[in-house]
Design brief:
The complex is a heterodimer of chains A (566) and B (593).
Chain A: H1 2-30, H2 38-84, H3 87-92, H4 95-137, H5 139-146, H6 148-186, H7 188-194, H8 197-250, H9 255-268, H10 270-296, E1 320-328, E2 334-343, E3 348-352, H11 359-366, E4 374-379, E5 382-383, H12 389-394, E6 396-399, E7 408-409, H13 410-415, H14 423-432, H15 436-441, E8 449-450, H16 459-473, E9 477-481, H17 489-503, E10 507-511, H18 515-520, E11 523-528, E12 531-536, H19 538-544, H20 547-565
Parallel strand pairs in A: 3-10, 3-11, 6-9, 9-10
Antiparallel strand pairs in A: 1-2, 1-4, 4-5, 7-8, 11-12
Chain B: H1 2-37, H2 46-55, H3 57-63, H4 66-111, H5 116-119, H6 122-164, H7 166-172, H8 176-213, H9 215-220, H10 224-277, H11 282-323, E1 344-352, E2 358-367, E3 372-376, H12 383-389, E4 398-403, E5 406-407, H13 413-418, E6 420-423, H14 434-438, H15 448-457, H16 461-466, H17 484-498, E7 502-505, H18 514-526, E8 532-536, H19 540-543, E9 548-553, E10 556-561, H20 563-566, H21 572-580
Parallel strand pairs in B: 3-8, 3-9, 6-7, 7-8
Antiparallel strand pairs in B: 1-2, 1-4, 4-5, 9-10
The chains are: A alpha/beta (566), B alpha/beta (593).
Chain lengths: 566, 593
């Protein structure tokens, strides 16, 4: 930073010296008609030129270093924070919003910090340097010239506020236009069938009209501001020539002094416009900075407890116990109330029941994506909030309804479950879930690149890969939200087989949709309105002829229908 | 467009005046110092002499120096006026061109045929409509005026220099070819560096986005540290590439500054030498030193202009790609005085997207006005395509479709669409209030009771009433999120309010639970006879009441008849019926018509 400032001052210094060169040439060589030393002068001139060029390059490099360094740092901090934040945070912040914070807001902020700083130091040192020289030359005249500075600042402040709010309006309208395009494209077929094209275009025209008028207003305000700054600056020069000139005539000031003084007085005002712009941008950056800090300073709701146990067990058995657990996402929206459940290590639990009954909340709690708002959950007899979060989650295996794969090879995606796994281990895992067959048939085998969102693989294939990823992690507790999407019969059979393999010997919680998964579970829980209404194995519940019986028969029908429709 | 050209011409003219006034104030200051305060003769254009004489000669001004100050301010005001006009006119022109472009794009996107959307990605389209338009606007707002300014400056200054002294003029332009060439080469280079930086930014964003969308997987496997390392790598790469870009820029500005300063230096030193030799006068030298700036400024701007021009051309090309897409043909028969009855006849109709893959083959269905037809069949059997032929979202390839006896492809698209209500499988609601969404299909202003009535039939009225703002609830991103079933029922209400002679439900009832579907169906039956209704469905319960059930498989009609007939024959329908196990007593009594 200090080095940067030194360079900036050097650049400003050369800027101050340059105008003197011409005068020197005229005075030393032309007027006396004497070419002696002209060669030396040329060398000095070129040296200064080179010096300045190097300076310019160096200060650009420095500012660049600052810019990239600052944005790198902010991104790193932001990303790390995002890895810690609890799901309750993600419930409120959309992916787009978070992306903007880490990408464009950060870029904008660091740019303004770096280049704004450069401009401020350059402009500031130039103005201070010139003002000092002027003061030494003639302080009364200097005060006179500087008297327009408050006026300048006042005008600048007024206009920047105005221009800034206009641009805010422009941006707001712009995002509405983008949203409108989005809607126009997404709803194109609807618009066509309703024959709403003309109306819709008319509505859009209102937006573009608004965009035009607000952008035009902002541009006109900027166009008005520049001349005002210029006029104010010229007033300073005018005052100098008026009073300075009178001084010369009266004999108070030497002629040469006035000439020098005037050239500096005009020079003094040159950086003002730049400075005004920088101040405006800094204001603008403030909003971005606040948004980023709010992200970085958010405390994760779920983190390691103060009394986290020191002696971490080497392994986890997988006994799970819910003791009067209460849970709500938002204040007042009770999802679970006094929920009790005791699960023996190694048993598989199928959760069935209608959407919104609390199945997802139960598995989210087991994963410790959320923590109970009352009561407690114990794993292996210990309150699970007392385990280190990362350690606990590393013993969990989670298979989500929509399998999320990362871009990279299939090998890397399976290895995500166990980073130290060798290629052989990965292949073994894939073989275990019978995914090896289809992977080997791909042209690039395990090196096949999974594209963004995995669009080059079928849903069933992605599910198999995510199952391989879970099995390689070898978790003590398995949590699974079974996919509802239909896949072809052959893949269906493979997935079923994989799930059976995966569940074996682990405590598992499954939100089950497949009849076979449900039938194979040790225990089936019917969850309704946050309560367990039926509890038992398939045969027991079927003979009960209650809610489970109803769900099962419905499911049976749906599955058969799907088969026919396939 | 003509208006914008005029604005640009005005702006460029204003530049000429602005430049003139800009260079007058230093002249005033110099004259004041040299000739009014000092005692040198006045070397300035005639107008200065006249002005001095007019005010009362040198001595008067000498005593009243405030006149000079006023003059300076007056000049600044004049200059300011033109600066203002340049800004106003050039932004007026560029903003209105951008507005036109946006409207054109929007209109185009509304007019392209449906298959356009299967070829383009939404993100890409939006990028073109927003940031590419913005790039073009910026170029038009800044660079057009800038280029005009450069050209004016060069056009004025080069003849002046040559007139003043040909040899000095040659010297003044010595490095210009080098600077120009240098600019071009450099900006070609920076383009590739810029692209690399852009790509690494894309890669970094991708890691971030994947991380954010896959948070659950990351947490589930406790892979936070791994993710941080992954991001760290991309983050550092991006940092380094941006820095590389800045380094290239730094070197460019450094070298171009050196060249420009060197050019001034050559003029100064050679000029001084020649002045001493007596080859040129001091006045000429001073003029050259001042004017060489006029020459160098436009040259320095070239690099910038070139980059911006390159970017703008790319953007323009991308926008044009959309605008060049063919649009739906809107010609055809229409007559608003004859009401559409809704008799529909498919005769040997077939359809294919391209030469190879037939989607529909030899479809024959005859539907009388007011009848209800249910189409069933496995996924991909062509059901949706078949109903989409009616509002002419797709045009059939062979055979014939007639509505009220008139060949469909001779009827104007907008006209026929106005007479068909379609409820799509995935209905789209606009970010407006529920009431506005429901009345979209109805021209004019339907009464509130009509809207409520339609919502009742669609079994959504009670739910809407339970919202805090009722029918004024805003849908979409800025409003409430509705479930798939709710959206479908809103769309159904919309179609019912439209009260079209032909009503199509494209699998629009399946997302509803059986109970709700039954309610809607009953309500629809009550108003039966007013519309020809075509329903794509999967439930036998939907088909029981239909006048005709059509079973489609692989683009062909395999079964056709009433429920009571179809359950008697072997096939898809009977298998479905047996499976869904509808007790016989729910079926309607046989009718004799």
């Amino acid at each position: 930073m200090i080095l940067l400032a030194v360079f900036m001052i050097a650049v400003a210094g050369v800027d101050i010296v340059m105008p003197l060169m011409t005068r020197y040439a005229v005075d030393t060589f032309i007027v006396p008609k004497n070419a002696d030393g002209l060669g030396l002068f040329a060398i000095i001139y070129l040296s200064i030129t080179l010096f300045q060029a190097v300076n310019v390059a160096i200060f650009i490099l420095f500012a660049g270093k600052v810019e990239t360094g600052v944005s790198y740092g902010i991104r790193k901090a932001g990303f790390s924070k995002l890895q810690e934040l609890s799901f309750s945070y993600y419930d409120h912040a959309s992916v787009g919003w978070l992306m903007t914070r880490i990408t464009s807001d950060t870029t904008k902020l660091s740019e303004i910090i770096a280049w704004g700083l450069v401009d401020l130091v350059w402009g500031g040192s130039l103005m201070i340097g010139i003002a000092t020289v002027m003061f030494i030359m003639h302080w009364k005249l200097t005060l006179l010239v500087l008297s327009v500075v408050p006026l300048l600042f006042w005008v600048s402040k007024k206009f920047q506020v105005l221009i800034l709010s206009s641009y805010r309006e422009v941006r707001k309208t712009n995002s509405k236009i983008t949203a409108s395009f989005n809607e126009g494209i997404m709803g194109a077929v609807t618009t066509k069938t309703l024959v709403r094209e003309t109306d819709y275009l008319r509505e859009f025209t209102h937006l573009t009209d608004k965009m035009y008028s607000s952008s035009f207003r902002a541009a006109v305000q900027s166009a008005l501001y520049m001349p005002l700054v210029q006029i104010a600056s010229v007033m300073g020069a005018g005052l100098a020539i008026w009073f300075g000139g009178s001084g010369v005539i009266a004999g108070d000031i030497s002629y040469g002094m006035l000439v020098m003084f005037l050239s500096y007085a005009t020079f003094f005002f040159q950086p003002v416009q730049e400075m005004a712009r920088v101040f405006a941008e800094l204001q603008n950056a403030q909003a971005a900075a606040e948004r980023i800090t709010s992200l970085i300073e958010t405390d994760p709701e779920i983190r390691d407890h103060e009394n986290t146990i020191q002696l971490i067990p080497s392994s986890l058995r997988g006994d799970i116990r819910f003791d009067n657990v209460g849970f709500e996402y938002k204040q007042g929206q009770k999802i679970l109330n006094n929920f009790n459940l005791d699960v023996e290590a190694g048993s598989s639990i199928a959760l069935v029941g209608e959407t919104g009954g609390g199945k997802t909340s139960i598995i989210s709690l087991v994963c410790r994506f959320y923590e109970p708002t009352s009561g407690k959950i114990s794993i292996d007899g210990q309150d699970y909030t007392l385990y280190p979060l990362q350690w606990l989650q590393s013993h969990l295996g989670v298979v989500l309804q929509t399998p999320h794969l990362f871009s990279g090879t299939i090998m890397e995606n399976i290895r995500y479950g166990k980073l130290t796994a060798t290629d052989e281990e990965v292949i073994r895992a894939a073989t275990q879930v019978q995914a090896d067959a289809f992977i080997s048939q791909l042209a690039d085998g395990y090196s096949t690149i999974v594209t963004e969102g995995g669009t080059n693989l079928s849903t069933g294939q992605k599910q198999l890969i995510s199952l391989a990823r879970a099995i390689i992690a070898d978790p003590a507790i398995l949590i699974m939200d079974e996919a509802t999407s239909s896949v072809d019969t052959e893949t269906e059979r493979l997935i079923q087989h994989a799930i059976d393999k995966l569940v074996k010997g682990r405590t598992s919680f499954i939100i089950a949709h497949r009849l076979s998964t449900i039938r194979n579970a040790n225990r089936i829980l019917v969850i309704e309105k946050g309560n367990i209404t039926e509890d038992g194995n398939h045969d027991e519940l079927i003979t009960l002829k209650g809610r489970y019986f109803q769900l099962y028969t419905n499911q049976f029908q749906e599955e058969k229908t799907k088969e026919i429709l396939k | 467009m003509a208006g914008n050209r005029l604005l640009y011409a005005g702006a460029i003219l204003a530049i000429a005046f602005e430049t003139m006034f800009t260079y007058m104030s230093p002249l005033v200051i110099r004259t004041t110092i040299d000739s009014i305060i000092g005692d040198k003769p006045i070397v300035a254009p005639g107008i200065f002499h006249q002005f001095i004489e007019f005010v009362g000669g040198v001595s008067t001004i000498r005593d009243q120096l405030w006149i000079v100050a006023i003059c300076l301010v007056a000049l600044a005001v004049c200059r300011g006026l033109f600066t203002y006009l340049i800004g106003r006119w050039s932004s007026g022109a560029s903003e209105s061109i951008a507005r036109k472009l946006r409207e054109k794009l929007f209109a185009q996107l509304q007019s392209v045929p449906v298959h356009f959307y299967s070829r383009w990605k939404i993100g890409d389209l939006i990028q073109r409509c927003s940031s590419d338009v913005e790039t073009i606007r910026k170029f038009l707002g800044v660079q057009v005026v800038q280029v005009g300014k450069s050209l004016i400056m060069l056009a004025v200054v080069i003849p002046i220099l040559i007139m003043l002294d040909a040899k000095m003029a040659a010297i003044s332009m010595l490095t210009i070819p080098i600077i120009l060439m240098f600019s071009v080469i450099f900006f070609l280079k920076i383009k590739s560096v810029f692209q690399i930086a852009d790509e690494t930014e894309g890669a970094m964003s991708a890691v971030l986005q994947e991380n954010l969308t896959g948070t659950r997987v990351v947490r589930a496997f406790a892979r936070q540290d791994f993710e941080i390392d992954k991001f760290e790598e991309k983050n550092a790469q991006y940092r380094d590439n941006v820095y590389r870009l800045i380094r290239v820029l730094g070197v460019y500005w450094g070298i171009s500054d050196t060249l420009v300063y060197t050019q001034s230096g050559i003029v100064l030193i050679m000029g001084t030498y020649w002045t001493i030799n007596g080859q040129i006068t001091l006045g000429t030298l001073v003029a050259f030193i001042a004017y060489v700036e006029f020459l160098l400024w436009p040259i320095r701007m070239t690099g910038r202009t070139l980059t911006d021009l390159g970017k703008a051309m790319v953007s323009l090309g991308r926008v044009k790609e959309i605008l060049d897409e063919p649009i739906e043909n809107q010609s055809g028969w229409s007559n608003d005085t004859i009401p559409v009855k809704g008799d529909i006849e498919f005769q040997g109709t077939s359809f294919r997207y391209d030469e190879e893959t037939p989607i529909l083959e030899d479809i024959n269905i005859s539907i009388k006005s007011g009848q209800t037809v249910v189409i069933m069949g496995p996924t991909g059997s062509g059901k949706s395509t078949l109903v989409n032929l009616l509002p002419r979202l797709w045009d059939y390839s062979n055979g014939s479709v007639t509505i009220d006896g008139r060949e469909l492809n001779t009827i104007q698209r907008k006209y026929i669409r106005n007479h068909i209500g379609v409820v799509l499988q995935e209905p789209f609601l606009f970010s407006k209030t529920l009431q506005e969404n429901i009345q979209l299909g109805k021209s004019g202003n339907p009464g509130e009771s009509d809207i409520i009535e339609a919502s009742r039939i669609a079994a959504i009225h009670e739910e809407i009433e339970s919202f805090e703002k009722g029918y004024d609830t805003v849908v979409g991103e800025r409003g409430v999120t509705l479930s798939g079933g709710q959206k479908q029922r809103i769309a159904i209400a919309r179609a019912i309010l439209q009260n079209p002679p032909i009503l199509i439900f494209d699998d629009a009832l399946s997302a509803l639970d059986t109970e709700t579907e039954a309610r809607i169906r009953e309500a629809l039956i009550l108003r039966k006879g007013s519309s020809t209704t075509i329903v794509i469905a999967h439930r036998i319960s939907t088909a029981i009441h239909a006048d005709l059930v059509v079973v489609m498989e692989k683009g062909h009609i395999t079964q056709k008849g009433r429920h009571s007939e179809l359950i008697k024959e072997e096939g898809f329908y009977r298998r479905l019926w047996e499976l869904q196990n509808i007790p016989d007593n729910l079926a309607p009594p046989e009718k004799d018509d």
